[in-house]
Amino acid sequence: MARYTASVCKLCRREGMKLFLKGERCLGPKCALERRGYPPGAHGRSRQFRRRESDYGQQLREKQRVRRFYGVLERQFRRYFKIAERSRGQTGANLITILERRLDNIVYRLGFADSRAQARQLISHGHFELNGRKLNVPSALVRAGDRVSVRELSRPNGYFRGLTEVLEHRSVTEWLSLDPATMSGTIVTLPTREQIDVPFREQLVVEFYSR
Asked: Biggest alpha carbon distance in the chain?
């Protein structure tokens, strides 16, 4: 499985916004964007004062932000866009909804992982079940009514052992429900764009792929 292996903090600096790729670290003073709020590279500081970006540049940056935020590589992201384009409704909103339906995003949203990257690792190692069946595919798309839970054999694991207390104080988005006692969550309904709290201008992504 292909994956990004370089410094993820550079991605936040390049995109000029927090992508929350390192969990709690992103919220503290060690966040790279807080310490060096300019693009990476030898000419990073000078880029801050560069002239206005072209329309193409803005579209490309927004596409990269969305893709990197969810941890999806280009080929898969383009495939999601084609699915969104064929679906009813607005293509941009459909795209964001599809990305939110990924199993790694659901595990992250439920609080079982501090970041989507960590969620992907936990899923790949076989710690989660979907509707009672073990699933180790982070990109699997969930549906309304699906139930995601930590496997019984994984609960004594050192990572999950202390997670129950954390989950009891965890609030989740309105389209999900969380049961800390059983370490499981349910997709109550598929989210609408208004219910997804991500600061992206997905219309620019649509324009990028519609050139």
From this structure: 56
Handedness of CA 205, 53, 42, 200 (dihedral sign): negative
Q: Which domain covers residue 164, as residue numbers?
A: 103-187
8 Å CB contact between 148 and 185 = yes
- At residue 42, the 3 state secondary structure works out as coil
For 73-88, what is each residue's pLDDT tens digit? 999 999 999 999 999 9
- Cα distance between residue 40 and residue 9, in whole Å: 9
Q: In sequence order, which residues have a C-beta less than 8 Å from that of residue 53 and are 6 or more positions away?
A: 61
Q: Would you state the pLDDT for residue 45? A: 58
In a domain, 152, yes or no: yes
Please say whether the beta carbons of 189 and 177 come within 8 A.
Answer: no
In a domain, 109, yes or no: yes
How far apart are alpha carbons 160 and 141 in whole angstroms? 24
Instruction: List the CATH number of the domain containing 32.
Output: 1.10.1050.10
Total-model pTM: 0.82
Q: Give the pLDDT confidence of 27-60 residue by residue, as tens digits.
A: 556 565 555 655 666 545 555 555 577 899 889 9
Residue 66 lies in a domain: no
